[in-house]
Amino acid sequence: MAALAAAMFVPLFITRGVGGFDFWWWMSANVAALVGLAAAQDKEWRSRVLDDLKSRRLFKIAGGLASALALYGVFYAGNLVSRWLFSFAGGGITDVYAFKGAASPLRITLLMLALIGPGEELFWRGFLQRRLELENGPWRGFVLAAAVYTLVHVGSGNLMLVLAAGVCSLFWGLLYLRTRSLLLNMVSHTAWDLLIFVLFPVG
């Protein structure tokens, strides 16, 4: 499944869309397809997701929001430090925001809320990381999943995006490793997406 995810995401980051099928529609389609395949392949995954959604919801939502704010703080500071240290950082960060293209903020927001944020956690952490942990042990599985998530962004040719993906994969991977809550991770990922891309961009 990791190879399939790479085959689906690498062309996306290289081309950023084809015609009217822009980056956000393509990203959403990829995430929906991978979540659907995960659900069809792993019955235990489905039951774990449903069980997680039923318990301690307010605590998990609060934890997700707090962790999103913490990660946003890391990126806010990282933006300032990287621009000071590296001459290429500013251009790389600006190029990340160019992924918005002609998509409206409303469409980006709705897709992030309904599909991209939750769906990425359902697949990357809830399915792929969990499977790799079962096969390789918790810590090795966590590292392998983080590596795959980071490497699929290499096709962008943007070092700042790859570094950002690495930080995010380690953060959310560790969060899932510690809490085992996909709801918490989904809230964290979705809230961070909205903060960094829509509400308070750092670039």
Question: Which runs of at least 5 residues are low in confidence (pLDDT < 50)?
Answer: none
Q: Please, how many helices?
A: 9
How big a fraction of the residues is strand? under 5%
Radius of gyration: 16 Å
Straight-line N-to-C gap: 33 Å
Strands across the major sheet, in which order? Answer: 1-2
Strands, total number? 2
Average pLDDT figure:
92
Task: Classify the secondary structure makeup into a structural class.
Answer: mainly alpha
**How does the major sheet shape up?**
2 strands, antiparallel
- Order of helix and strand elements from N to C terminus: HEEHHHHHHHH
Overall helicity: over 70%
The geometry reads as: globular
Describe the structure in brief:
83% of the residues lie in helices and 2% in strands.
What does this structure look like?
The structure is a single chain. With 203 residues, this protein is an all-alpha fold. Helices cover 83% and strands 2% of the residues. It is built from 9 helices and 2 strands, in the order αββαααααααα. Strands 1-2 form a two-stranded antiparallel ribbon. A hairpin with a 2-residue loop joins β1 and β2. α6 packs antiparallel against α9 and α8 runs antiparallel to α9. The model has no long low-confidence stretch (mean pLDDT 92).
Task: Name a few traits of the molecule.
203 residues, mainly alpha, 2 strands, globular
